[in-house]
Amino acid sequence: MFDIGSTELLLIVIVAIVVIGPKDLPRALYKVGQVVGKARGMARHFRTGIDAMVREVELQELEKKWAEQNKRIMAEHPPETASDDSESAAGAASAQPQLDLADTPMTPLPTSAYPGSPKNDEAA
Question: Which of 3, 80, 89, 92 has the fewest CB atoms within 10 Å distance of its CB?
Fold first, then answer.
C-alpha cells in the first residue's frame, strides 16, 4: 500500500520519540492503531456497500436479459390453445388406462418381508 523503506521507518520512529517522548509513545501508538482500525472498518463497510450495489445492477441486467429471452422463446414456441390441450388429454387418456386405487384395500406386509425384523433374525 505505502512504499516505506526501512530508512524512512527509522526516521519516523526517531521523530516520534523526539516529538512525543518515550513515556507517551505507547499511548500514542495505541491511539494510532485505533484510528487505523476504524479507517479500515469504514473502508470495508464502504466497499461492501459498493459491492452490493454492483450485484443489484448485475441482477437487474440479468433479469432484463432473461425477460427478453423468455419473450423470444414464447414468440417462437407459442403455448398450445385450450382445444389442443383437451384433444391431447383425451388422446393420452385413451392410450393409457387410469387405475383407481381408492377402493383397493391396503394390507400390511408380513414382518418377514422387512430385513432385520425379529422373525427374520430367528429364521436365520
Answer: 3
